[in-house]
């Protein structure tokens, strides 16, 4: 096998294992929370902090870590983050009490920000000529981690106890660390200057806004599906099977859609994804047939995600690619929080009128979010790039 192809595969594997590590950890933990509560003789509300504090730690450090990576080296920060994530996982497995576990989860969230926040940018920098495809592979790996986390976590907890789920991270973290020595670097000019440039780049901000709207629609749809399906008489286990359809579709369509966007253009494919998402919400809302929505949303996510991520990074002003990768993660978290508030609030206020009515209205609103994402995509095509020397000074 040619040396170039070996390096190509190893570099991709370093990124895919890293992103799978973080998503697998998050999804597996959910299965362990009841056992953690029992082990520390507390309740579900107390142990839920193991999930939320991780998210808080990540959210607070996406931008600072990305800016630091642009100055000291993106690959260096990525590798240190992988090492820290693995070491903290070992400490988590040995937590003597709940307070220690919660503190370590916050610290692990900071380390996780250096993995999740940098992988998209590293993929685009390492595979410049095929970044749509590379980001499609990243999206597929996220889907794989989300799908496999619950069954792996459930098996580990049943067979070895809740502490064992943290040991899953050790071999994956070490493997990603060993493979990650030859990745492409992302340029950066420091936090203040990077913020000055990206905040003065309308096309980049429109691309980020489209990302927020996409994740709000996706996360909101994930929230209303269980409520509606259980109201129709399905058991939670059957609902779980139904909801595995979109990530399975994303797993297989993500790389294909990313490759398509390399040929046809990132804006064109991501816009097609937003239209597919909007129509899927409309159709399942009007007809009440969730199967149509599951397939349509899964396909729409595959079309949108990799292409839009590539567009976000491509619209970043010169020498801000590192912090742009962090902003991409901030947009994802913001969209998920927005979708949770919108969908949860709508369902709570409309449920008394009947599940069918609540499902219709919720889908109409969520479909509008996807349509707005498409508007943002069309709008950013009309915005000329802003030269670095014309960006206004911050403050």
UniProtKB/TrEMBL annotation:
Domain Major facilitator superfamily (MFS) profile: 11-381
Ranges annotated as spanning the membrane: 12-33, 45-65, 77-94, 106-125, 132-153, 165-186, 198-219, 239-257, 269-292, 357-377
One Gene Ontology CC term in the entry: plasma membrane
Predominant cellular place of this UniProt entry's protein: membrane
Membrane topology according to the record: Multi-pass membrane protein
Domain of life: Bacteria
GO MF annotation list: transmembrane transporter activity
UniProt cross-references to Pfam families, sorted A to Z: MFS_1
SUPFAM superfamilies with a match to the protein in the record: MFS general substrate transporter (SSF103473)
Record keywords, A-Z: Membrane, Transmembrane, Transmembrane helix
Alphabetical list of InterPro entries matching this protein: MFS, MFS_dom, MFS_trans_sf, Tet-R_TetA/multi-R_MdtG-like
Subcellular location: Membrane
Descriptive protein name: MFS transporter
Annotated organism of origin: Geomesophilobacter sediminis
């Amino acid at each position: 096998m040619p040396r170039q192809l070996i390096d190509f595969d190893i570099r991709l594997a370093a990124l895919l294992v890293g992103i799978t590590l973080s998503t697998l950890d998050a999804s597996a933990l959910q299965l362990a929370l009841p056992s953690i509560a029992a082990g520390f003789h507390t309740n579900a509300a107390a142990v839920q902090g193991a999930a939320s504090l991780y998210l808080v730690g990540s959210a607070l450090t996406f931008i600072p870590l990305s800016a630091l990576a642009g100055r000291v080296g993106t690959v260096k920060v990525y590798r240190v983050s992988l090492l820290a994530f693995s070491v903290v996982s070992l400490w988590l497995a040995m937590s003597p009490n709940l307070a220690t576990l919660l503190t370590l989860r916050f610290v692990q969230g900071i380390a996780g920000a250096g993995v999740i926040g940098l992988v998209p940018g590293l993929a685009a920098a390492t595979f410049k000529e095929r970044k749509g495809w590379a980001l499609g592979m990243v999206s597929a790996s996220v889907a794989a981690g989300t799908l496999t986390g619950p069954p792996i976590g459930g098996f580990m907890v049943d067979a070895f106890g809740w502490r064992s789920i943290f040991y899953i991270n050790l071999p994956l973290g070490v493997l990603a660390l060993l493979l990650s020595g030859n990745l492409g670097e992302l340029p950066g000019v420091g936090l203040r200057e990077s913020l000055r440039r990206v905040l003065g780049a309308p096309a980049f901000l429109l691309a980020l806004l489209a990302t927020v709207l996409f994740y709000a629609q996706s996360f909101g749809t994930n929230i209303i599906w269980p409520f509606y399906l259980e109201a129709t008489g399905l058991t939670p286990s059957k609902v779980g099977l139904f909801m595995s359809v979109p990530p399975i579709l994303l797993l297989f369509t993500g790389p294909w859609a990313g490759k398509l966007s390399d040929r046809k253009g990132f804006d064109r494919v991501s816009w097609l994804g937003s239209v597919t998402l909007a129509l899927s919400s409309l159709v399942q809302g009007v007809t009440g047939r969730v199967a149509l929505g599951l397939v349509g949303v899964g396909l729409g996510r595959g079309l949108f995600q990799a292409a839009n991520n590539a567009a976000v990074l491509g619209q970043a002003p010169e020498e801000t690619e590192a912090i742009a990768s962090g902003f991409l993660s901030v947009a994802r978290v913001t969209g998920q929080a927005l979708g949770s508030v919108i969908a949860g609030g709508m369902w709570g206020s409309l449920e008394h009128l009947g599940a069918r009515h609540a499902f219709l209205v919720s889908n109409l609103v969520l479909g509008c979010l996807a349509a707005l994402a498409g508007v943002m995509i069309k709008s950013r095509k009309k915005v000329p790039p802003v030269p670095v020397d014309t960006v206004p000074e911050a403050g």
